[in-house]
Sequence to fold (106 residues):
Amino acid sequence: MRHVYRHQNSYHNFEHALDVLQAIHMFLCSAGRVPPASILLEADARTWRPKQTAGKPALVNCLTPSDLFCLYVASIGHDVGHPGVTNNFMVSGSSSSAVRQSYLFQ
Fold:
C-alpha cells in the first residue's frame, strides 16, 4: 500500500498512515481489545484474552475480530490518493474531482 500513497504529499503520506495505525492500535490496546506488541516477547502469552468490563459495556467491546481487522486496514489506507490540498482549494481551482463530486451531491 505504501506505493499507492503520493510520496510528494507532505502530510497525507504513508508515514501519516503508520501514525494512524499505531494510534488505533494503542486505543484498542488501552481499551483491552487487543494485546500489546510486547506480548510477542513473552514465552507464555499464547492465551491472551480481551478484558471483560463490569457495568455498562463500552462500544469498543462490540467490535468483532473482523471489525478490528477492518479498522486496522482502514487506518493504514485512509488517505491513499489524497491530493494534499483542501476541499476549498480544489473547488476554487475547479479541479476535475471537485467538479465530479459537486454533481454527486446536488
